[in-house]
Design goal:
Blueprint: H1 3-23, E1 28-32, E2 41-49, E3 53-59, H2 61-72, H3 81-102, E4 110-112, E5 116-119, E6 133-139, E7 144-150
Antiparallel strand pairs: 1-6, 2-3, 2-4, 2-5, 3-7, 6-7
Helix pairs in contact: 1-3, 2-3
């Protein structure tokens, strides 16, 4: 398994575990898409260490609303916009924390920055050559979440 596959697997497994634990919703890896774009809700975090990384998790607002409703025990239409943003930010924070534990004895050990949110339509990311990118689409028949890792 190469470096990109290893890190992609660690972070996607961490996200799947976080969502299952917080919401009871089971998701699986649907595909690995190196050039996958973002959805219109995006949470991100810098991971600083010997090999620094940047973690992005994005989803459609409707999918996040459904996950949030499962997490807080409310109907989807009762979930407030601020709750969606908070929970997406918490998903990125918990995913990074979970991955940090899994990578603690490797060259990929890191410290966490505060998570931040970005919203918009048709977002894209351009990176310098030689930047490694791992993108994973996670989901089930109702929900999809995109994870992107830069290092």
């Amino acid at each position: 398994m190469d470096e990109c596959d290893l890190l992609g697997s660690v972070f996607s497994d961490a996200l799947i575990e976080v969502i299952l634990t917080c919401t009871g919703v089971s998701l699986n890896v649907l595909s690995r898409e190196p050039d996958a774009g973002f959805e219109h809700m995006l949470a991100a975090m810098n991971l600083n260490g010997k090999k620094s990384e940047m973690l992005f998790i994005s989803s459609k607002k409707s999918d996040m609303r459904l996950l949030c409703s499962k997490m807080i025990g409310a109907l989807p239409e009762e979930v407030a916009e601020d709750e969606i943003k908070d929970i997406l930010g918490e998903f990125v924070n918990m995913t990074a924390g979970n991955a940090k534990l899994r990578l603690s004895d490797t060259d990929y050990a890191f410290t966490l920055s505060p998570p931040f949110m970005i919203e918009g339509e048709k977002m894209s990311l351009s990176v310098k050559r030689n930047t490694h990118v791992s993108s994973t689409l996670i989901g089930n028949d109702r929900i999809t979440v995109k994870l992107k890792l830069l290092y």
